[in-house]
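Tutorial, part two.
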Amino acid sequence: MDIPISSMPVIDFWFEFGSNYSYLSVMRIEQDAARAGVRVRWQPFLLGPIFQALGWQTSPFVLQKAKGDYVWLDMDRQCRKYGLPWKKPGNFPRPAILPLRVAVLGAEQNWMAEYCRRIMQMNFAHDRDIDNKEVVAAVLNDMDLPATEIIAQALGDDNKLKLRKQTELAMSKGIFGAPTFFVGEQMYWGNDRLDDALAHARDLLIYPDA
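Running the prediction step on this input gives:
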């Protein structure tokens, strides 16, 4: 029996285009959520202000060499596991303010998932600077979307404020890294917890009081 979209359990997916583990989740969440009968709410936000609030000037994968060395080995393994293209970015963490502003604008549009996958691949498969108009416009144009119009809207003051408020909301929810998933009030952190979050959301459909 087909379930109306409005009746599907929801997973809130908090992610950042500069986050390597967000790359893994962005590339698989739409398909995995559909298989589980769960609706995805895309929640782009900026990790930088959260790191700064924690007293860090950049990613802990940069600040802690041993952790950073491990992460790149792990990314190679994880990308092979999921069959994803992978190239260690020449600049990490890569700024992503413009593509995130576009993502905030398009969060409820039907092109959101494909847009996010393409931006992520620019960063983590093609090692491209994603925080510029040329790259973002190329992605949107390749999707047959009105790139000039979308970027102009994304750079509007109202939309800039929306990304700031989105980041403040992430902070208020206790988010400290990406990707992070919420099913109701239950928080799951890290790509390797996506399956658990989807299973919990699916259980809510079967056991609505769970």
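The chain is about 55% helix and 10% strand. In part three we will examine how such features are distributed along the chain.
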